Amino acid sequence: MLSTDPIRHKANQELDSDRKAEWGQFMTPDATADFMAGLFDEPTDAVRLLDAGAGVGSLTAAFTRCFPASSVTAECWEADPIMCGHLVPLLDAVALRTPGFKFSVRKEDFIEAAATELISRKMPRFTHAIQNPPYAKIKAQSKHRHILRAVGVETVNLYSGFLALTIHAMAKGGQIVAIIPRSFCNGPYFKLFRALLLRECSLRRIHVFESRNKAFKDDAVLQENVIIRLDRGMPQGDVVVSSSAGLDFDGCPSRAFPFSCIVKPGDEDLFIHVPAPTDAAALSFSPLCAGTLKDIGLEICTGPVVDFRMTDDTRREMEVGTVPLLYAHHFKKGVLSWPDLAHRKPNAIRVSASSRRWLMPSGTYVLVKRFSSKEERRRITAYVLESTDLPDDLVGIENHWNVFHIGKHGLDFDLACGLAAFLNSTATDQVFRIFSGHTQVNASDLRKMAFPTQETLRALGKKAGKGPLAQEAVDTLISEMEITCGNA
Fold first, then answer.
1. Are residues 345 and 243 part of one domain?
2. In three state form, how does the secondary structure of the chain look?
3. Tens of pLDDT, residues 108-157
4. Which range of residues forms the domain containing residue 60?
5. For residue 375, what pLDDT is reported?
6. Is 255 in the same domain as 374?
7. What CATH number corresponds to the domain at position 164?
8. Cα distance between residue 415 and residue 386, in whole Å
9. Do the Cβ atoms of 224 and 189 come closer than 8 Å?
10. pLDDT at residue number 160
């Protein structure tokens, strides 16, 4: 068997680190490539294979290893000259070992050239596509953004741009297997991409890596990655979800879920939920979860104070005419530690004509950090800011917080304590992870979740208090009250 791992390691050493980061170049290990190739159905006719962002050719080589008897014509796109220096010799070696294999290499920008060919209808139709596209943001006014818009693709990252063009290039019934960041599953930035994907394809398979650093173990990849299988223009059926701890795919757990568990009926945002294959009950909706925040009469916003836009008003210490300014670091182990003069960030904000509209009235709020580190046990970490915790009638809440409120005012104490306990539970964390695969906790994501009624939250708050409670104590309270977290 021809292994591509040594070639991949050699190419990695030759790549410029800055260019690699700019282009989002992360090459696929053989074990992952073989697993991906195995997700295709056994070909019954000649294969026309697309490998866009081919790198050194690991995925195409894996396809031929999986289906050595098939007639395969591969079109491999790779714009990086270092990668191409390894790609062509590898494909030559594959062709020598595989009689039915032919290939061409296109040393072009895939987005630019493929979009042009799609517009002119010169792009050939492919029966199969296997893909590990580059991961990098597309700037709003960049050339790639304008090119993609010309073919009706609106997206914010190279990987989704590559996959969108690949979808357009597939014949009806064509099969796509791709390894991509999970960030497309939720949030507003990928909504139009999700709409394209779900409109043009059926979603057949989702594979999740339980550890963030295992899919590309040789690279410092922070994104949580998934492998998906799509079929162009075919009816949607059940979706098989599987997972693995690392690159050992033998015997990995899997379960078929109804599509209605993956994309909720009536969800205008088209969030893609990924339940754990070992926990079919994770998507169950509890009678004690009454609905979304809007349904139960609560609201959420991001912290209004964007400090770099208000540097004239921020102060390191309190002085006449200022009010407290809260950052995420002001809570340590669940306890408010304000002011924090050892930290470089300010602790106060001046009340001025420019800042007044961004300040909130003093009250009891529930604050959730918008960003968590990948090492933290929970994605969602909630704190109770009580009305008596800080001086003054106003407070500045910095933009790295999510703030639960009612009409821009605080909550009653028991409601706030119950809401924080609910958010800090393991059950809530598990549900959140079903549709969010990154460390950012967006207000839009929290709006999609189901919450208990205010009455149930108040009853929970009376038992939980302000906290902080140990994780086991929080989970015991949730269990005793028979609150099962769910998705709206």
1. no
2. CCCCHHHHHHHHHHCCHHHHHHHCCCCCCHHHHHHHHCCCCCCCCCEEEEEECCCCCHHHHHHHHHCCCCCEEEEEECCCHHHHHHHHHHHHHHHHHCCCEEEEEECCCHHHHHHHHHHCCCCCCEEEEEECCCCCECCCCCHHHHHHHHCCCCCCEHHHHHHHHHHHCEEEEEEEEEEEEHHHHCCHHHHHHHHHHHHHEEEEEEEEECCCCCCCCCCCCCCCEEEEEEEECCCCCCEEEEEECCCCCCCCCEEEECHHHHCCCCCCCCCCCCCCCCCHHHHCCCCCEEECHHHHCCEEEECCECHHHCCCCEECCCCCCEEEEECHHHEECCEECCCCCCCCCCCEEECCCCCHHHCEECCCEEEEECECCCCCCCCCCEEEECCCCCCCCEEEEECCEEEEEECCECCCHHHHHHHHHHHCCHHHHHHHHHHCCCCECCHHHHHHEEEECHHHHHHHHHHHCCCCCCHHHHHHHHHHCCCCCEEC
3. 999 999 998 888 877 779 999 999 999 888 888 889 999 999 888 989 89
4. 5-282
5. 53
6. no
7. 3.40.50.150
8. 12
9. no
10. 95
Q: How far apart are CA 380 and CA 48, in angstroms?
A: 45
Q: For residues 322 and 403, state if they share a domain.
A: yes
User: Which residue in the block uniquely carries the two structure tokens 């270092």?
Assistant: 82
Give the closest residue to 122 by CA, choosing from 83, 71, 75, 155.
75
- The CATH number of the domain holding residue 328 is 3.90.220.10
- Specify the pTM: 0.77
| Together in a domain, 66 and 179 | yes
- Do 224 and 321 lie in one domain? The reply is no
**What is the average pLDDT across 234-238?**
96
How many C-beta atoms surround the C-beta of residue 440 within 10 A? Answer: 13
Residues 53 and 95 in one domain: yes
**Which amino acid appears at position 461 of this protein?**
G
Q: How many domains does the chain have?
A: 2
The mean-pLDDT minimum among 36-40, 139-143, 166-170, 298-302 falls in 139-143
Domain shared by 127 and 148, yes or no: yes
218, 252, 282 - which closes a domain: 282
Here the tokens at position 19 are: 């260019």
Contact 307, 301 (CB under 8 A): no
> Last residue of a domain, which of 282, 297, 331?
282
252 burial level (CB within 10 Å; 0-12, 13-18, 19+): middle
Given the structure tokens 């162009």, which residue do they identify? 232
Same domain? 155 vs 293: no
pLDDT band at 283 (very low <50, low <70, confident <90, very high): very low
